[in-house]
Amino acid sequence: MNILVTGGAGFIGSAVIRYILTQHTDHNVLNVDKLTYAGNLDSLVEIDGYAGYQFEQADICDTGRMIELMNTFKPDIVMHLAAESHVDRSIDGPGEFIQTNIVGTFSLLNAALQYWKELSEEAQAAFRFHHISTDEVYGTLGATGLFTEETPYAPNSPYSASKASSDHLVRAWRETYGLPTLMTNCSNNYGPYHFPEKLIPLIILNALAGKPLPVYGKGDQVRDWLYVEDHARALYRVATEGEPGETYNIGGHNERQNIEVVHTICDILEELVPDKPEGVVAYRDLIEHVTDRPGHDQRYAIDAAKIQRELGWTPEETFESGIRKTVKWYLENQDWCQRVMDGSYRLERLGIG
Length: 353
Fold this sequence. Notes:
This protein has 353 residues and is an alpha/beta fold.
């Protein structure tokens, strides 16, 4: 098959491309990425030279360019991962999130619809537009309960509102125009090649540098952590085997408070990097509780029973195994970290409002 991936130089998108091309070598992949601050082709070095891989630097908001690429590449599947994704950045500058996540999805849907309409009847039936979204569109949970595919939307941040909007556009293009779409909503991802503004890589890199480890509020916010390579497997399964018109929630079954995540990283570093920066006695001593994020959701947790039941997917990594792999990866790839922090981001606090 020909699979067009938007945002393929980003964290999750690059994991999807690496998975497809290393595990399903008969496919062709076109990576379409604007290469914003969080997009980095270094995340795809291991598939350099693969005959089935192509890259085009382009903006999904450019409908004409998207139509041109589709007509040339002739995708059987479009996997749409291109998005602004950091909640803190959405608080400081929501405009980019509205433009990329809403207008960009609108543009890509229009391009896909025009391309799809010109296909043969058989090719139309086989085509899939897979939109990748987040569990944050559902808002926040109390101490109990899980997000299901039927949970009402209640986004609380500019980021989650923009993703909820894009989800609704995808649904509308299916219901109104018949475009065969699928949707997935996932829990918090972590793993290799994660841009250092996110919690886990930020804590790892700050600890190695002897810098404060910022924890929002009490650190009692709960997230369901999903190892990115498990997520990549799930996304491929949905794109190739999922039922058009369906939504599938993807979670790691790994609920942890943020402070627990930070403690776990500190403890692994105590074991793997006992020689600490000057003046640091214990990594946990670097933890610094800071003013909480405005509108911070308290708890996310995914019920992933549907994707397990209908498509046979379950996560392979526990949080304990995945976080150890992640810490080791960052320890072994310090050069990558330095290259992606090119001056646009230096581990500073964002999202104060």
